[in-house]
Design a protein that fits this description.
72% helix; 2 strands
Length: 192
């Protein structure tokens, strides 16, 4: 992130003198990208959707963990039977074989369960990454549109600056444009 900001600032510094010498006036604006992301209505919608997906996966994982715990209890009970000194040799061999089959199934299930959990977490991470990438694209498009509309040649994230004049900040304009279609703020027509 810092490298990107440094590169952006260097590019800005390099472009400004060239454009200034060409007679093009530079007009700069700032935007608080973090605030924009936080206050954009689609971010809340995606966070709610992702939270529901996480809860669903956690519920399924809890169910599978419970089944695995039941299998472990069954294995432990089988092991207790094997430790019974009154068991004859044939019964001991039969119980040992059943125990080994159950133990192998338990271990295979544990491996499968761990792989499934990792896959679910990877899937959730990918969904989150895609959702936020789309939101960032939308924000970037509105920032670009606002910049063009107001004649700005450079827009910098205000978090990257040590100081800037508050009049350069277009965060509220960007948010207003992004939140135009916020379904939570649309007022339903009154019935007569």
């Amino acid at each position: 992130m810092q490298k990107t900001l440094i590169a952006l600032l260097l590019a800005t510094a390099i472009l400004m003198p060239a454009r200034a010498s060409a007679g093009v006036e530079q007009k700069m604006a700032t935007v608080n990208v973090e605030k924009t992301l936080k206050d954009y209505w689609r971010t809340a919608v995606e966070e709610k959707r992702l939270k529901k997906a996480v809860e669903d996966v956690e519920k399924r994982i809890a169910g599978e963990n419970e089944k695995q715990t039941e299998r472990l209890t069954e294995l432990q009970n089988m092991q207790k039977v094997l430790q019974n000194p009154n068991l004859n040799q044939a019964a001991h061999a039969r119980h040992r074989q059943q125990f080994e089959v159950k133990k192998k199934a338990f271990e295979q299930n544990a491996t499968t369960l761990n792989n499934w959990k990792a896959s679910q977490n990877k899937d959730l991470s990918e969904k989150q990454r895609k959702a936020y990438a789309k939101i960032r694209e939308e924000i970037q498009a509105v920032i670009s549109a606002q910049a063009k509309k107001n004649g700005f040649t450079v827009v910098i994230d205000s978090k990257a600056l040590l100081f800037s004049d508050a009049t350069l900040d277009i965060t509220n304009q960007v948010l207003a444009q992004l939140n135009v279609n916020d379904p939570g703020k649309v007022v339903a027509p009154k019935k007569k």
